[in-house]
Amino acid sequence: MTLGEHSMDWITAIVCGLVALGAILAFGIYRNRRLRTARRIEDLLGEYFQGRMSVGQLGQRARAIASRDFFGGPTFFSLAASAFQHATDVKRAKQANSKDEDELMRLVGNLKREFGVPDRYDLEEQPGHE
Questions:
Q1: What DSSP letter does each residue of 105-130 carry, written as one string?
Q2: pTM, full prediction
């Protein structure tokens, strides 16, 4: 192996290392942004289910934070379901009446209409969930 070939091997290794480092850094930034977006949406959904904002306000603020694709994906549905479940648990812990549960169901319906959440996420309509 000549000196020129040895130098090329080092240059190739350095370039490959920098490309790999760049890819890792880009993935880390992407993942951090997704997590931050999810946390912000989660906070908004919590406020919504506590009755501290209307569905229109929620829609406007959430769309300013996340992309349209986010709202059609499983992450948004998971966050919405979790916020709903948390609100339900809080109401039940306070021995809420059926009026409180009806209000939560109304809020879920408004949320589905605002963000176009398809009915395929309704557990009652999925096979095996009767």
A1: HHHHHHHHHHHT--GGG-GGGSTT--
A2: 0.68
